[in-house]
Amino acid sequence: AHSCRWHYKVKLQLKDGTSKEIELNDQNKELFNFLLEEDYRPGELMEIEEDAHGSYILNAKDLCLMPKLDAYLNLGIDSLKVEGRNKSAYYAAVVARAYRMAIDDWYADPESWSYEDYMDELLSVPNRGFTLAFHDGRLQNLAHNYEDAHSLSTYEFAGWVTAVNTEFVEVEIKNRILAGDVLEFVSPGYRDTVRIRLYEFALADGTVRDAVHPGQGTRIRIPLAQFDREDPDSLLDRIPTETVVRKDRLLRQDEWNRLKLDNEAQQLELGQGNDAAYEKKRVKLAASMQAAPQPKRAPRQGAEGCCGKGCNGCLIFAHDPVFEEARSALEEKKMGERLSGVHRLARTR
Known about the structure:
By secondary structure, the protein is α+β, with helices and mostly antiparallel strands. The chain contains nine helices and 18 strands.
């Protein structure tokens, strides 16, 4: 169980080791050590170690059992629940979709199944790093973040589809979007997402802007004709109403370093990482956190801004000679592979 599920009492302990209940105020608080007592561990007092980054006993990473999913499916378990308490619609949609794909793939070919195929999707939602916690027995030090405990992700919630027809897709905006940003439609029933780079935004009232902000139900309308690399016959089915939309999150260097450290820690916990690599990344994170703050940046326009994935509407990919081979490969790609479990997903909504 995650430590946030436990119930605690705060205890004060005198320097001589005796514990007492006493009124705490600015005049006497420096006389005591602070400890937690959990409901089911009476008498077992856990000292709260706190610094500028928080109290470490409560800095647990997020429980993630995707690496153990195949073991549960092998047992014949046929119903799984995603923890959605205090989570966004984006979180619930992306995580449920990742597990839907993982479950379907295991049933289709358990021998070649690998949890790693789905971790990128889980990393696209806000997380504090992933851990198995007590799943395999005793808790390891890798289950906590000691340098930084903030939630991070590679993507952020951009909005959701509120209407779609043969002329346009309407999206309600949930985060700031600037000219050149790529919106990624996370199809609930298909494996491939739908990506489009926009250079301007047409609001529902016809106003055209080069930036849009959330609030007061701001909605943009994207003409279907701008999805120039999609099959028009399947597009309406691939991005139905309530489809969530995401965009790349702008991260500082220290935040990128935190994500790399989280990944190395997870690999170590699973017996696949490298202690030296973990320590190197930990030191690099600490150094970047102490360095002068850097602006959050990500290239949007210009040759260096193209991801090479063939996003709809991307002028760079469409015309730059650098991507000629990639354009040819995209023409041969089969688009719109449906999730085999889409009918089961629809029933569980």
